[in-house]
Amino acid sequence: MTTISRQELARRIADDIPSGSYVNLGIGAPTLVANYLTEDREVILHTENGLLGMGPAPEPGRVDPDLINAGKQAVTAVTGAAYFHHADSFGMMRGGHLDICVLGAFQVAGNGDLANWSTGAEGSIPAVGGAMDLAIGAKDLYVMTDLLTKQGESKLVAECTYPLTGLGCVSRVYTDHAVFDVTGDGFAVRELFGGNTIEGLRELTGLELVDATTT
Amino acid sequence: MIDKTVASVQDAVAGIPDGATVMIGGFGRAGQPVELIDALIEQGAGDLTIVSNNAGNGDVGLGALLAARKVRKVICSFPRQADSWVFDGLYREGAIELELVPQGNLAERIRAAGAGIGGFFTPTGVGTLLAEGKETREIDGRVYALEYPIKADFALISARTADRWGNLVYRATARNFGPIMAAAATTTVVQVDEVVPLGGIDPEAVVTPGLFVNRVVAVGERPWLSDGEFVGGVDIDGRPLPHPDAVASSEDSRTEGAS
Lengths: 215, 259
What we know:
Low-confidence stretches of chain A: none
CATH class of chain A: Alpha Beta
CATH architecture of chain A: 3-Layer(aba) Sandwich
Helix content of chain A: 10-25%
Oligomer: heterodimer
Low-confidence stretches of chain B: 249-259
Distance between the termini of chain A: 20 Å
Structural class of chain A: alpha/beta
Number of strands of chain B: 13
């Protein structure tokens, strides 16, 4: 295998989230990371609609329509949770109070630019939600994504061609092939998964990649 | 004696004119003041500008207001959702105008209006399509874009509990835009499960002080609560779940029908 599964990737990201962190997990694949935050660590999950201390989905019959996450799915509140209004919630992001945010991406550029809200397709209805606030707010922005699109194009690029979500905001990219650090003027490979090699990744991405693997 | 309570949802939305700007609370369906929106549809005001995070879910609430073609423009952050078919249709036929605002900028612009702020510089959106043409300024080495407040003629919001002075307590993530919209509108209308006597809300627990509220109407407890306690038994849209026996018997009948 040259790639790892989405579940394995979620587990890998969870491993990098230290106890005591305040973390926002974006809609979609990043929510899987919550499944691997083990109980020996207290990690407090933030959801933009106004909750710190988000817990897992409730059992059937215990769904509370007043208690949802950013994806508008039913969730629970852990013991010690706090509710707040939207301006406070986004102040937590914009004000740099969250430690880590994990988001999906269409493209990430070597300067840390992120494109994840719109493909710019003609006739599509635009919707941005909290993506731009999340992108520029957290101390560290991790992207969780497949390295390649379904068409086989690299999501790591020299320059984003899709509409931007935020400038210079991504610190690290976790893909199914490897983990990449954003250096500001390119990408450094931090960890290889499966049978991947630096040379192979250079071919897949068309980018000059720095070898920063430590093993 | 100050008494902001009104007897009916019809009284609560009285006087909203054609062409008004109306804020509508809620994030998705949570905190959406569905009874007030239904009363507004019945009241008939049109050519409205709506400020809300989303642009309707399904055929109820804001979705129904849009379907009734009472809305000229929507200012929101996330119109396109799995169940936003009413908005999608109107947008594609060119029957509704959209101003798309990043969610945190939407919240802060509403907050600014209520707080008397004339504008603010924010980093959110800088360098993107949504800040194109906006004035920017570098402060302490970071680039910010100028955003202006959003105020409204009316705000329609929902809360859990009010007293006759209009002090409000919310419930869980249904709080969302309620407190900031209450402050940003000339006339703030609140639907609550319950109105309690003055003194029935702990002053330490008041989230929105009554000063920001003009009209309060009690619409009764939602099906997932009983005397203020969560009892469940509903789906995410608040519809009661079928009784387990009923599910079993309907599955039986489907099985029988298929055999």
